[in-house]
Design a protein that fits this description.
By secondary structure, this protein is of the alpha/beta class. Helix content is 38%, strand content 20%. The strands form four sheets. Strands 13-12-1-5-3-17-18 form a seven-stranded antiparallel sheet. The chain has a six-stranded parallel sheet with strand order 7-6-11-10-9-8.
Length: 391
């Protein structure tokens, strides 16, 4: 048996928790499969010090519900959201979607976790390049999923060939240590790369394999001159010492010799603290595990209405809700559906953020390209921090 479930297997409920299978059996035996419910997806707790998260995976999740007799309201793919804001509302006979809950949440939790971490990394990096290098830290079946959501969250590019093709982008990367080791010398590997690889691919030399980064950078720059686009430091943590100081040393030596055009890229186990401490001395980051193994955004799905009657379990707010945001001041809040048209406290109109996404099992939400979604994410994150949006 293939350990990777097919789309067909996921859609028919093979990847669900068994208690949903048994729930449907019980409802069927009682003739209650058609009981109509309204269920909301939201987050009660964020990882670490997150102030907000990015909704990703919504479009893939909707594909699980296609053809089922359900209606869905949802925030847009790539939307910024806060704690306890419903990001998605499913309404219909419970028997239509009860076995999809596990897969629905799994898609949203991981996709949103990756996109959110990527957005945090990109915000810290500012105008510095961020490349998604994390595919090798996860099962290859997940590589395109990881890179898609990393890109939507803000990464400037991805290294995996299939991922880039899926996104409509050009794969980006440099050279591995293996090439240098096989050929026995950094400059020989660089010259080989320059002679064999298409001219439109930037020449980026990895300079930490055999010798001191400073001297390898000088050798590479002198070998290729104006053709050298950048050098990359992937220095092992055991040899780093003060990584920032090493980078500054490389920059000094390159500039001193007239190689100011050579950019400096860094990679190797980088996290948010590293990005913040290095962003003023480097030109770009290759970020792997931090993004691909990002903390999940732990969504839950809870029934809040049964047959049109507000009804929820203890600790949950019953009744349908809407999330509204003021177009002027950015204030946002969760309100009962009946109050969705109310004015903001500043007197300006408030816009609903939960919009029609599916009607009777048919997707009605517009679909955007990954680059358009990335722009949406970056715009909303910048706006949130500039205006201090809050509830």
């Amino acid at each position: 048996m293939n350990p990777i479930p097919s789309q067909e297997e996921i859609r028919r409920g093979d990847t669900t928790d068994v208690y949903f299978v048994r729930t449907r059996e019980v409802l069927k035996s009682l003739g209650k499969e058609a009981v109509r419910v309204k269920a909301e997806v939201y987050v009660k707790r964020f990882p670490d010090v997150y102030e907000h998260a990015i909704l990703a995976g919504r479009d893939e999740m909707l594909s699980l519900l296609e053809g089922r007799n359900v209606d869905v309201l949802a925030m847009e793919e790539g939307a910024l959201f806060l704690l306890e804001e419903p990001v998605l509302v499913v309404e219909g006979p419970y028997g239509e979607f009860c076995e999809m809950e596990t897969a629905m949440l799994g898609i949203l939790c991981q996709a949103s976790g990756i996109a959110t971490k990527a957005s945090r990394i990109k915000r810290l990096a500012g105008d510095r390049t961020v490349l998604s290098f994390g595919a090798r830290r996860m099962h290859p079946a997940l590589s395109t999923l990881i890179d898609r959501h990393a890109f939507v969250g803000g990464a400037d590019g991805v290294s995996v060939v299939r991922s880039a093709s899926f996104l409509g982008e050009t794969p980006q990367g440099t050279m591995p240590h293996a090439l240098i080791l096989v050929l026995g010398d950094t400059v020989e590997a660089l010259r080989g790369f320059d002679g064999a690889v298409a001219a439109d691919v930037p020449r980026v030399c990895l300079i930490d394999t055999l010798q001191d980064e400073k001297f390898e950078a000088i050798r590479a720059a002198e070998a290729l001159g104006k053709s050298l686009a950048a050098v990359r430091l992937d220095t092992p943590s055991s040899r780093r010492g003060n990584f920032r100081k090493i980078v500054r040393e490389v920059r000094w030596e390159l500039d001193l010799r007239g190689f100011s055009h050579v950019r400096i890229l860094v990679s190797g186990g980088l996290g948010e603290e590293d990005i913040a401490s290095l962003r003023d001395v480097v030109d770009g980051f290759g970020v792997g595990t931090c993004i691909s193994n990002a903390p999940t955004i732990d969504f839950a799905l809870d029934i809040v209405e049964v047959e049109g009657r507000p009804f929820a379990k203890r600790g949950k707010l019953s009744g349908g809700k809407q999330v509204v945001r003021c177009r002027s001041c950015g204030h946002r809040c969760v309100v009962p559906e009946a109050k969705a048209q109310a004015l903001c406290r500043c007197g300006s109109p408030a816009e609903p953020l939960l919009l029609p996404a599916m009607k009777g099992g048919n997707v009605v939400a517009p679909s955007l390209s990954p680059r358009e979604l990335r722009s949406r994410v970056m715009e909303q994150v910048a706006q949130f921090h500039e205006r201090g949006e809050s509830r």
